[in-house]
Write a structure and sequence with these properties.
Elements (H helix, E strand, L loop, with lengths): L3 H6 L4 H15 L6 E5 L5 H8 L3 E6 L2 H7 L7 E5 L12 E6 L9 H14 E12 L1 H5 L5 E5 L4 E10 L4 E10 L4 E10 L3 H10 L2 E7 L13 E8 L2
Parallel strand pairs: 1-2, 1-4, 2-3, 4-5
Antiparallel strand pairs: 5-11, 6-7, 7-8, 8-9, 10-11
Helix pairs in contact: 2-3
């Protein structure tokens, strides 16, 4: 489902993107000219705006389709690369910060999800920061059984049905995209594991990272069971 239809139908508007970038900027509190890795950058909505503020930004994603959209930029301090988040193709200790936004963590089994965090830790400098923006797992549970549909454009309809497995803590988003102009129908499944804060903290610690702040949303409200998001700011400790 990581294609141009996703880029059109899944994302916040420009105003919310600006708010997210302001949150990233203030939360990371980096010096001018710092290097940020945007992990799972998609079509680059955060990477582009962060680079415009003066950071050196590297966007990494597994989807060549979304990266083709992201690469429509001539900024000299912005690069996009295709790669696997479990094995980030950058030099060790090369980044001042890594961001992972819009619930782009938990795609794999527990072993590989931990490997993602270890890979992040390897490219961070000592005291480098990881900002991980995640759905609140208690909110994810409440999505079980929900169904929605919306028009992506005049000719494209998106249908979504969510199923949550309580035994595994995994959520499946079953998506059907109907393109009436092309007379086509494409089905896909987004499958993700949602960890509670203690589980996530344990994984981060195993990867050499420690949580220094927790937020319930980008307005920096406290995190609780009713929060929309679970956002953790961690730093590399070794």
């Amino acid at each position: 489902m990581w294609n141009e239809t996703y880029a059109l139908s899944e994302l916040p508007d420009d105003d919310e993107t600006e708010e997210e970038v302001d949150f990233i900027d203030s939360t990371l509190d980096l010096k001018d000219g710092s290097t940020i890795l945007d992990l799972c950058c998609g079509q680059g909505r955060h990477a582009l705006k962060l680079s415009e503020t003066g950071y050196y930004v590297i966007g990494l994603d597994f989807s060549s389709v979304l990266l083709d959209i992201a690469n429509d930029s001539s900024l000299s301090n912005l690069w996009f690369i295709e790669g696997d988040m479990r094995n980030i193709p950058l030099q060790k200790n090369s980044c001042d910060a890594v961001i992972n936004m819009f619930t782009s963590f938990g795609f794999f089994d527990d072993k590989d999800n931990l490997q993602v965090l270890k890979s992040v830790s390897s490219v961070l400098k000592c005291k480098g920061k990881l900002l991980l923006d995640y759905w609140n797992p208690y909110a994810a549970v409440q999505l079980d059984g929900t169904r929605n549909w919306w028009w992506v454009s005049d000719k494209v309809l998106s249908l979504a049905e969510v199923k949550y497995d309580y035994a595994s803590g995994r959520l499946q988003d079953h998506r059907t995209i109907i393109d009436f102009e092309k007379a086509s129908m494409v089905k896909s499944i987004r499958d993700m594991k949602f960890y509670t804060l203690p589980e996530l903290e344990s994984m981060l610690n195993s990867a050499g990272l420690r949580i220094i702040e927790v937020y319930g949303d980008i307005d920096e409200r406290d995190y609780d069971s009713n929060s929309r998001r679970l956002i953790t700011l961690s730093e590399k400790i070794k």
